[in-house]
Each structure stands twice: as C-alpha cells, then as structure tokens.
Amino acid sequence: MENTMDVVKLYDYLHTIPELGFEEVKTAEFLAQELEKLGYKVTRNIGKTGVIGEIIGTEPGPTVLARADMDALPFVDAQGQHYANHSCGHDAHCSMLLVAAANVVGKIKKGKLRVLFQPGEETLRGALAVIRDGIIDDVDIALGMHVRPIQDIPDGTMSPAVCHASSTFVTIDVEGKGCHGARPHLGVNAVEAAVLIANALMALKLNPALAWSCKVTGIKGGYVAPNIIPDKAQMIIDARAQTNELMDELMTKLTRAAQGAAAALGATAKVTTPGGIIPAAEYNQELTDEVAECIKEVVGADKCMPIIINPGGEDFHYFVRKFPKIKAAYFGVGAGVTPGLHAQDMHLNKNSLHNGAEVMTKMILKIMG
Ligand SMILES: [Zn+2]
Ligand SMILES: [Zn+2]
C-alpha cells in the first residue's frame, strides 16, 4: 500500500486537539481509526487511553515496539484560564510514528510490529500504565524518538541517542519534639534538623566525572507560633543522576546523610520517593549504531550528530528497567524547537518531521523487512 499520509497535515491536525495525560480521548480515537484504515489490528484503552496497532509478519522474528507519546502540557493563560498545549512535541511524535506505520504496511516479513501510542508521558506514569496492561512482556526491541530543541542539535540534524538521566523527587519527613520556645532543651527542633539535613546534602560527594545533582527545592515546617519549637518539617529534593547505578548510590548517600544529620539533633528523617524513581536511558549499542546508519541515509552523515546527554526524564526507560531483555534505541529529531521544550509558546519546523518518520520507517524495515 502506498503511503498517502502527510506528516505535516497530521501534525497540524493533532496540534489542534491537545489533551492532558490520561485524557487523550480524541487523539487516541483518531490514531486508532487511522491504524484500522491501514489494516492494523487495533486495541484501544491500553493504560487507560493508549492505543496499540499490530501487524504480524509471515516469518518468525522479534516483537518490535515502536512508541510515541500522545499527551500535551497544562498551562494558564493571561486571563487565568487553564488550557492544554503541545509544548513537548508529542503531537509531532504521533504524526511521525503514524506515517512510519503507514510506510511499512505490506513490507513486514519477520516478527510482530506493535505500534504504541502511549498516554500520560508527562505524568511519568504512562509507561507504567501500559506495562501493567501486559503489552510489554513479550517485547524484544523498543524504538522511541523525541523532537529536540535548538539548544541540543540544529534543525534538520538528528542524533542516534538521547540519554536521559534518572530523576526523582525525594520527600524527607523530619520528626522532632515540640515544646515551649523558652525551654528549647526539652524538645527537638525539626526545622533546625531540616537545615542541618540541607547542609549535609550539599556536602554529598559522587564521582565528579559523571553528571548528577541534588537540590533542596522546598522546606516547610513550624509557623504554628513564633514561641513554639516545631516538631515537624518536610523537605523536597530534586535528584538526578546520569546512570541507574549512580542514582542508587546517590539515594543511599542522601538517605544516610538525612538520617545522620537528623539523628545528630535527636530527630528522625523518613526518606521516600512518592513518585518513584524514573530510570535512566539504557540503550543497545548495536541498535543505536543501526539508527545512526539510518540517520546518515536520511539526512546525510554531516547531519548525524553525537549522542545527546539530557538531564530530563522520560518514562520510556521503564520498559528496559522492568524488562532488561528489551533492546532499546531512542533517537533525537532536530526540529528547531524554539524557544525550548515545555515553553508555553513552543514552535517547531514541521518539515523536519519527515526525517523522523523516515528514520523510524527504515529502522522497522531493517529489523523486520
Ligand atoms: Zn515533556
Ligand atoms: Zn516529551
């Protein structure tokens, strides 16, 4: 079947129907119907609002997951009205993947292709939701992509790998003992313990050759009355590390520092990560090399950029974290994203989306054709 889909027209349409995570009803239904028209076996409501489409080849081979995220971001306008906008380019990802899905129809020989339009990436719970629905268990190879801002790579170029960091929000609940401000020796000041913890965290040491960071982004406690020694305080920490091993080490040292600093004053510190820990990227080198080859074929060797080290998080990496047998690759599409991802007035060069659709098409056919 010849591809009659146009990535720019698809993008223009999807851009007009931005929906927040797990509310992508119109987007999902549109994509489901397009996949059905192409002859895919479609299943709706995966991970609440996600969609998968499958094509099975005639010969045995790997199960290949090609994934795009669907959700938009929440904003508030000058009048105080809440609205959604595609400021992370997930509409671009859906357009590129749908075109690739159309391009490969009739050409899949080996294995099973599973096209996934994933909900809720920005909530960082979307990948976990589709995992819970059991559609990742049998996956051998996972392919993903993301448009890149001008800060990363120039418009029209591509990178074979976007190496996201592991990231998490840590909550530290500090427990002391309240008492009268005139008799502080009878209590344990939880706010003072939190300050000591903050200082201990700023003295943490990890291998400086690797990228990591640990920032106190909130402390609250006290304010009951100026003459009451506060018994409780809570801290929020934004922690990131380039690899999963480094994140494990950071969490161990952070927990020890928090508990030790609290104990120095007779307080306790409970360290939790209520939103979980987003895994770092773990890519298969061979597959990444193949992506680089496809990029060179599509945009030329001079426009194939080095891998991108990115301190941001991406829930795609739960797939490999939960199923280590999966070989993954995830490429960056230089699309002149300006002023940057997550900017309220984000815009991109739609014409560069052809490149992403082409590379995804070539990768699928390289593995399955
Ligand atoms: Zn985003
Ligand atoms: Zn995104």
How would you describe this protein?
There is one protein chain. The strands form 5 sheets. Strands 1-2-6-3-7-18-8 form a 7-stranded mixed beta sheet, sandwiched between helices. It is built from 9 helices and 18 strands. The two termini are 15 Å apart. The relative contact order is 0.19. It has helices spanning 7-15, 25-38, 90-103, 126-132, 190-202, 244-264, 285-299, 318-322, 353-368, and strands at residues 41-46, 50-56, 59-69, 73-76, 82-85, 110-118, 141-149, 158-159, 162-164, 166-175, 179-180, 212-221, 228-229, 232-241, 268-272, 277-278, 308-310, 327-337. The longest helix is centred in the last third of the chain and has 21 residues, at 244-264. The mean pLDDT is 97. It is of the alpha+beta class. It folds into 2 domains: 7-164 and 281-368, Zn peptidases (Aminopeptidase); 166-277, 2-Layer Sandwich (Alpha-Beta Plaits). The protein is elongated. Strand 4 (73-76) and strand 5 form a beta hairpin. One zinc ion binds at residues 88, 90, 121, 146.
Helix percent reads: 25-40%
Number of strands: 18
List the ions, cofactors and other small molecules found in this model: zinc ion
CATH level-3 fold name of the largest domain:
Aminopeptidase
Please provide the ordered H/E string of secondary-structure elements.
Answer: HHEEEEEHEHEEEEEHEEEHEEHEHEH
Total domains, how many?
Answer: 2
CATH superfamily of the largest domain: Zn peptidases
> What shape does the CA trace take?
elongated
